[in-house]
Amino acid sequence: MDGTNTSMVTMFVLLGLTSSHELQLTFFVIFSAFYLAIVLGNLLVILAVTSDPHLHSPMYFLLANLSFIDVCQASFATPKMIVDFLSEHKTISYNGCITQIFFSHLFTGGEMVLLVAMAYDRYVAICRPLRYVTIMSRQFCTILVLTSWAAGIVHTLSQLAFTFHLPFCGPNVVDSFFCDLPRVTQLACVDTYVTELLIMANSGLLSLSSFLFLLTSYAVILATLWLKSSAAMAKALSTLAAHITVVILFFGPCVFIYMWPFTTYPVDKIIDLLMVSATRFLA
């Protein structure tokens, strides 16, 4: 990394969530418990799906993979944030910062595509029940999971391609608890307007296309059930409610951050928390 980037900055300073020592101790306890619950909860889902033969179905196979991505998504930045609550000086190396950006977009992009795959699974189960076993074979489900990881890799590498060449020779203070791409890009020593547009276009295209596909699939599912019976529609709503909530909480922050020019708002840190941890409980 050092060979291709002429940055003079070797580390970044993270401002974290708050400068209050009392609040940092409180946050340490809260987020430690929060993170532990996320990891243990998702690992229990993975264990249950893999150990119980009754759960060896496409829906639970995709759910277990979603839980795995959720653990990864919650772990790329949260442990350091928790440790930093006990540190007076919160810093991260340049390579560590780039690594956080890489994994952030890898897991986020992969989860978007996996949520689309799960919505397609529900569409086939409800709208094409007689062909469900044929369509949602184990081989096809494996392809869907591999596709989600491939999409995440392509997405994160393209994001880094836009930003890795940027020189960082002065400001190195990131007003966040992890290296968020929009804030890091703003610290570059050159005009980053075009780079910001490319980053927004990249993230916006993936977010918007995935979100529109999800909305379309839910609309088709509900329309199909409405034509059958109101009881079937009510049952479907009860099973889809958690999934729809996750989709809204997951895509909402992405749209807020990446769908317009990079501007910092006071609520951004809360949105970042939603992206890396909050939705992991509902998934």
Number of helices: 10
Outline type: globular
Mind summarizing the main beta sheet?
3 strands, mixed
* β-sheet strand percentage: under 5%
CATH topology heading: Rhopdopsin 7-helix transmembrane proteins
Radius of gyration: 20 Å
Order of helices and strands: EHHHEHHHEHHHH
CATH class: Mainly Alpha
* CATH-level-4 superfamily name: Rhodopsin 7-helix transmembrane proteins
CATH architecture: Up-down Bundle
Oligomer: single chain
Question: Could you explain how this protein is built, in words?
Answer:
- The chain is globular, with a radius of gyration of 20 Å.
- The chain has a single domain, classed as Rhopdopsin 7-helix transmembrane proteins (Up-down Bundle), CATH 1.20.1070.
- The protein is built from ten helices and three strands.
- It is mostly helical and 283 residues long.
- The two termini are 35 Å apart.
- Helix 1 (21-51) runs antiparallel to helix 2, helix 2 (58-75) packs antiparallel against helix 4 and helix 4 (94-127) runs antiparallel to helix 6 (138-163).
- It has helices spanning 21-51, 58-75, 78-84, 94-127, 132-135, 138-163, 181-185, 193-228, 230-258, 268-282; strands at residues 11-14, 91-93, 173-174.
- A three-stranded mixed sheet has the order 2-1-3.
Produce the secondary structure layout.
Elements: E1 11-14, H1 21-51, H2 58-75, H3 78-84, E2 91-93, H4 94-127, H5 132-135, H6 138-163, E3 173-174, H7 181-185, H8 193-228, H9 230-258, H10 268-282
Parallel strand pairs: 1-3
Antiparallel strand pairs: 1-2
